[in-house]
Amino acid sequence: MAKRKSTPFSAAKAVKANARTRVGQPKPSRVLADRPRTGRQAKHKPKLEDLLREEQ
Known about the structure:
Shape: elongated
Oligomer: single chain
Radius of gyration: 27 Å
Largest sheet: none
Helix content: 25-40%
């Protein structure tokens, strides 16, 4: 059977593993709910003409 190829040393992985042993596992991330999409009109500022018509 063939011998497995060893993975190259990664300093970032070594630092993270060291931090996990000293501090502990980080808390799992939470999924943030996306804002509901309100449509195309909400993406653009209302025009001055439309604002003046609404006031009357």
